[in-house]
Amino acid sequence: MIEVFIVDDHAVVRRGIKQILSDDPEIEVTGEASDAEELMQQLYEKHWDVLILDITMPGKSGLDVLIELRQKKPEMKILILSMHPEEEVALTALKSGAAGYLNKSSVPGELVNAVKRINDGGRYITTSLAESIAFSVEKDLSILPHRNLSDREFQVLCLLASGNTLTDVSKMLSLSIKTVSTYRTRVMEKMNMNTNVELTHYAIKHRIIVPL
Q1: C-alpha gyration radius of the chain
Q2: CATH for the stretch 141-205
Q3: pTM
Q4: What is the mean pLDDT of each run of 10 residues along the chain (212 residues)?
Q5: What are the residue ranges spanned by the domains of the chain?
Q6: CATH topology of domain 2-138
Q7: 159: closest CA among 176, 183, 190?
C-alpha cells in the first residue's frame, strides 16, 4: 500500500485529491495539512511514501517547504501539484529536489500514475511540460544568470528571494549564518546584484518563485 500525505491550503482540493487516489486500491491517503506549519507538526509522526505539495500556500511557499524537507527528510518523495504550468517553476521545483511536477489541470488523469511512478523511485513530468522544457533548452536559456549558480547557491537565491532572512536560511539549510552569508555574496556577484529586493524582482520575473 502506498501511503500519501497531502499539503494544500484548500480543503476542497485536498478532498478531491483524496477521492481520486482512494479510488485506486494500491493507494491510501493517511495524512493531510493546510500549510507548512501543520505539515511540520506531523512530519515525524510516521512514514509516508509520497508527499503531494502545493506551491502557493499562506506562510511559507511550497518551494520553501520543499527545500526544508530535503534537509529534514531527504528520503521523502515529493510530488509538486500546482496551478502554475510555467516551465521555470517546474524546473525550480525539480532542481530543488522534487521527484515530480504536475499541474492541477492534469488531475485526475495523471495523478495516480504520478504517485505510483514516484513511489517506485522514478520521476514524473507531463509530456507537455517535457516538450516545454526541451523548447526552453533549444532557446539556450542557460545564458540567464541563475543558470550559472551551484545547487546550493540556487537554494539560497530561492529562499532569500522569498523573503527569508540569513538566520531563516541558516536554520532551513542547517548551515551557519557565516556560510549562508558567503553563499549570498557569491549569488550577488554571479547575478550582478546588490540587494535582496533585486533578487526577488528577478526571481518573480523569471518565475523562479511564485508571488503569493
Answers
A1: 17
A2: 1.10.10.10
A3: 0.68
A4: 94 92 93 92 91 86 87 91 73 86 79 93 82 60 75 88 90 90 92 89 79 50
A5: 2-138, 141-205
A6: Rossmann fold (3.40.50)
A7: 183
